[in-house]
Amino acid sequence: MEYIVSTLGNLIHQTAFFNLTYGNFIMILVAFVFLYLAIKWGFEPLLLLPIAFGMLLVNIYPDIMAEPEEMSNGVGGLLHYFYILDEWSILPSLIFMGVGAMTDFGPLIANPISFLMGAAAQLGIYMAYFLAIFLGFNDKAAAAISIIGGADGPTSIFLAGKLGQSEFMGPIAVAAYSYMSLVPIIQPPIMKLLTTKEEREIRMEQLRPVSKLEKILFPIVVTVIVCLILPTTAPLVGMLMLGNLFRESGVVKQLTETASNALMYIVVILLGTSVGASTSAEAFLKATTLKIVFLGLAAFAFGTAGGVILGKILCYATGRKINPLIGSAGVSAVPMAARVSQKVGAEADPTNFLLMHAMGANVAGVIGTAVAAGTFMAIFGV
Q1: DSSP characters for 296-319?
Q2: What is the full DSSP assignment across 143-162?
Q3: What is the pLDDT of residue 179?
Q4: Closest CA to 343 of 334, 352, 333, 331
Q5: Per-residue pLDDT tens for 230-253?
């Protein structure tokens, strides 16, 4: 009888109920909120759902992220090994290859002025960098945090890993992906505040046809130019352009399908769950996390504003041939930001079609954010 009681007692104390802290319960509640937003409202579910589930797992069973030396058998937790792929920049780079394979660069090629709006939308990154230093972060941490302003989760993870800011990677990644999910909520008020109804109603000329040769040469030329100037961008820009070359060459259909479908979704699962699992209560519930969330929102708001303001300038410089709304798509949340530009424009004029024009700025933003990350890496000699 004593043996049975002792065995039952040991089993009961092995349950998670005796190990959870108040912080764990808070993070579990946050995970439930993220799951609700992903499933009920469809806010970037491909990313938010695995992130939320990883968050749920690590706060119920912390050992799922344990390092090998912390375990008696010398084998680390499952998600620890997924997370190493984040720190080594493998998963973010593969995500970029998938994005390239899925994306048509034609609108950017047809309207090269979109590069300017993609560059202007990086204003938020540099504003947040100086604001982060003001709030007490060191220069490398400030750079890793500020890249959230590009609304690009893979680049945020990539730069945090390269700059050795693993302690902030969880909050940075969660903030970046959360703001990517909330693009339809955050951007429209800023866009409407900075534009008039007449500006939002501006119709743009149909984009010119882009030849197959142009589409094939574009990823090659961009890779050569950008990587010669900033070699540190090669993992991101190189993989983005390789994926796009798969798509546009027309000779590797199997590689295109693999990069844009099976491989892409496998990587999303690994990256999302490992990012979510980096948000244990001990690591996440800190004052610095609140600062990172605030800085990310400020960066994203400034980035959106920067794109719209340059859009207004170009609007009047070209004789009202450019709708300023497409400037907001200069952040690199592809294709969500472009859809938001279309949606806000359609509210002013239901017959106006801005999506393809906005995609040009959107793709430029992806390249611009990668260049911003490479610039920080070059500055710090990484």
Answers
A1: HHHHHHHHHHHHHHHHHHHHHHTT
A2: HHHHGGGG--HHHHHHHHHH
A3: 84
A4: 352
A5: 999 999 999 999 999 999 999 999
